[in-house]
Amino acid sequence: MKIISICNQKGGVGKTTTAINLSASLSQKGFKVLLIDIDPQANATSGLGARKNLLPKNIYHVLLEQVSIDEIIKPTKINNLYLAPSNLELIGARIELITALGREQKLKKAVEATKQLFDFVFIDCPPSLGILTINSLVVSNSALIPLQCEYYAMEGLSQLFNAIELIKQNLNPPLTIEGVLLTMADYRTRLTGEVIEEARRFLKDKVYNTIVPRSVRLSEAPGHGEPIMSYDKNSQGALSYNQLAEEFILRNSKIYNKLEQKKPEETKEEAVQTEANKRLESSVGEKRGIGENSNRQHKG
User: What is the domain range of residue 240?
Assistant: First the structure.
């Protein structure tokens, strides 16, 4: 299992959009993926169709060690994609964790239980470098950084890189930069070209070849509680995130090759389930898809 934090202390750069759509695209390619929403705004939660205000338990309760993460993980409408939801209660965790012993390790302790269940775990971080983002980076193998193709885009990156380096030195030595994703590109403007050129010059091969364009359809999809590939699979946004998933897989070729070797054995009429599948099924029990379950609660 590989854990990736999607982070940037700037807001509105495409963190949640990337978290949802990269997770969904990898899930559609056969990987088992968990998306952890650790942003109090809970946009990843609602963007996958969950009614965040109707969920009895969420990642807030996990961080405070009131429940295990298995108890909050829910299946989504997308096959192979699971969600650990959030809501506004998480704002309180920023205060409650201040005096907690081992506060930077809370998420790491919780996620240990999912090691055999998923191929990839993505964490949608809040737009800050506070305790929630620190928890995310401490548990992660790497950080994926969306970078908006806008003025001042490069500003603040040095602060983020410094924070990652400090966490690497003191709390999580294996932490690396997974990659930098250029988002919201508008090729009608000269500025987009300048940002792309500057990013590639300074960040070199850390920058993905894939560039996500500014897209109305990408903006609309979360309002329908769907990833872009199910909302409009032929849109430019869907094609871009599918391309990103392919590039992500290539960059993680060791994990990919290992998983590919397992596939022929696992897919024999689905008669034999892996231990991970069995554990996952027992952990989520007979929970239904988020949309169906939340709609029933709403009606009630």
Answer: 2-299
What CATH number does residue 98 fall under?
3.40.50.300
Count of domains in the chain? 1
Which residues, in sequence order, are CB contacts of 100 under 8 Å at separation 6+? 106
How many Cβ atoms sit within 10 Å of the Cβ of residue 254?
Answer: 9
Residue 270, number of CB atoms within 10 A of its CB = 8
Phi, psi of 166 (to 5 degrees): -65, -40
Q: Name the burial class of residue 56, with classes exposed (0-12), middle (13-18) and buried (19+) by CB atoms within 10 angstroms of its CB.
A: exposed
Instruction: Give the global pTM.
Output: 0.84
Q: What is the pLDDT of residue 73?
A: 96
In whole angstroms, how large is the CA radius of gyration of the chain?
19
For the chain, list residues with pLDDT below 70: 254-300
Task: Name, in order, each residue with C-beta under 8 angstroms of 80's C-beta and a sequence gap of 6 or more.
Answer: 27, 28, 30, 31, 32, 33
Q: Is the dihedral of CA 259, 264, 267, 273 positive or negative?
A: negative
Distance separating alpha carbons of residues 197 and 147, to the nearest angstrom = 13
- Measured over the CA atoms of residue 70, residue 175, residue 6 and residue 233, the dihedral's sign is negative
Do the beta carbons of residue 9 and residue 129 sit within 8 Å?
yes
